[in-house]
Every structure is written in C-alpha cells, then in structure tokens.
Amino acid sequence: MERDLRLVDVGRRYGLRGPWVLRGIELTVSPGTLVRLEGANGTGKSTLLRVLAGIDAPSEGRITGRPRTAYVPERFPSALPFTPSGYLTHLGAVHGLSRAAAARAAQQWLERFGAAAYARTPMARLSKGSSQKVAVAQAMVAEPELLVLDEAWTGLDADARAELERAVAERTAAGAAVVFVDHDPRRLEGVPDATYTVRDGALGLRTEQAAPAAGPAVLVAVRGPAGAAPPVEAARWITAVDEVEPGVHRLTVPASHSDVLLRALLTARPPWHVMSVGPVEESRS
Ligand SMILES: Nc1ncnc2c1ncn2[C@@H]1O[C@H](COP(=O)(O)OP(=O)(O)OP(=O)(O)O)[C@@H](O)[C@H]1O
C-alpha cells in the first residue's frame, strides 16, 4: 500500500429513501496500520467494512487511494462449486499470480490455517469451521495491500485463530493496512493503531489509551549495540522494555506479534542478537 485510503464525507443507505446507516464518515487508513471498528449490533460496522472493501459503493461521498484489497465477509458463501485448493488457486490467478505460484500460495495458506487435509474436498461438504479457514485463506492468497476482516476469527479453532493474528501482523509489517471487527474485545488488544466506534451513523475515535495487551505475551531477551534503543521497526510491537544490563533488553510483545518482532530485530542494521524467547505468564504485572 503506497498511500492513504480516504473516505470523504461517505454516507450509505439501503434503497433510495431508506434511513441513513452511515453519514458524513471521514476516515483515513494509512499503510502499515491496524484499525479496529467497534459498536453495538446493527450500528453499521459491516456496512462500513463492505464500503472499505469496495464490495459496496457509498450512496454519497467519495473514496480515494483504493489499494489491492481482500475481504473476509461475516458470512462466507461456503457452498461454492469448487474445492478449497481450486478456489484459492483461481483467486490467486485472478489477482495476477501465475497458475503455479497461485497453486503454491493456495497450498501454503491452507496448510497455515490447518485446512490442507480437505484441500480437495468440495467446499459444499465442509463444516462451518473448515469453510471459515478457506474464507480467511482466500483473503491472504494474493498478499493484499488492504485486508478487511468482518468477524473473521469466529468459528476458527485456537490454532487457526492464532495463525490469523500472525498473518495480520505480517501484513501490517509488510506495509499493508488491516481493518477488522471482532466481537471479542481482547482480540489483538493493545495492538491497533486506532480504534473507532460506529454510533448513530457516525464514527468516533476512541481516544483513551489502549489497554496493555492482556492476551498471551512473549518475553524476548536481546542484546543490541551499547546505548541503542530497540530499532523503530520493532518498537511499535513492544508493550514493555526493561534494560537489564547495558545493551541487554527484555522486550514484552503480544504472542501474535512475536514472529514479526523477531524478524525486525534480526534484519535491523546492525542486527540485534536474540538471546532467548519465552512465554510470559502475566503479560503485564
Ligand atoms: N443489504 C441490506 N439491505 C437493507 N438493510 C441493510 C442491509 N445490510 C444492512 N442493513 C441494515 O443496516 C443497518 C446496519 O447493519 P450492519 O450489518 O452494517 O451493522 P453491524 O454493526 O455490522 O451489525 P452486527 O454487529 O449485528 O453485525 C441495520 O439496520 C441493517 O438492518
């Protein structure tokens, strides 16, 4: 994603005379950011996500800077006449991958979400949880610049939920933007760059400081150049830093972002030496 996606005075209503679901929405989504939308049932979160994803057009206002986008809908149409492998390969090819590269990406994403065993089972025969794995895999296949997730974690098993959190972290680390809605307030807690509340058709930025991540956290002990602070590419994921001796830091990071943090540390110039990685019982004491 190279520039901001902007919604300018966007409104959406269903039907010519229907009530306005959203009105006067001003929203900027910048490259590399994670944005959470929240709000009570029926306030228009899914409507806004569909507009952001380009699935639905605004009734008024305009959108600029639309990047290559992928979307996981609240209800995935699972009874498609494909196998997961065939569907993902087809989508990858539509997004410009060669057939071989699309097939490889399809296989890789189905494996990551634990769906490889039924890669060749007709999608209409999959359970709800299995088709949700296909729903999230289809969004990742073409490495989108904007990823829009509407309750995408719902129905996934614990491993696939964690994998989706990692995939989100990878996308934002690669410069893509991710916008999500999830009923679990602890989903990626402390990680979003911005959280907006949809209320009465409008958007409010939740300004209070995000709570420290309460989910599983990882403690990473690293040695860097004497006197140096952790590199900026890594710093955004860190929820606590403790310099235990000169040059040696203990970094706390949400488990979902530990892979991304480690990669940022190891690819920094000069690289940081990772001494140990382990779980934290309480993410913050
Ligand atoms: N296709 C549609 N046609 C007519 N009205 C719609 C349509 N989709 C949504 N609406 C209406 O728009 C309003 C907002 O719905 P939306 O699904 O965007 O809210 P939401 O915040 O995502 O709700 P939930 O949390 O229950 O999923 C609701 O009143 C809903 O009935």
Automatic annotation (TrEMBL):
It comes from the Bacteria. The keyword Endoplasmic reticulum does not apply. Keywords: ATP-binding, Nucleotide-binding, Transport. Residues 5-225 form the ABC transporter domain. InterPro entries: AAA+_ATPase, ABC_transporter-like_ATP-bd, ABC_Transporter_VariousFunc, P-loop_NTPase. Coiled coil: none annotated. GO terms for molecular function: ATP binding; ATP hydrolysis activity. Gene3D superfamilies: P-loop containing nucleotide triphosphate hydrolases. PANTHER family: ABC TRANSPORTER ATP-BINDING PROTEIN ALBC-RELATED. This is ATP-binding cassette domain-containing protein. It comes from Streptomyces adustus.
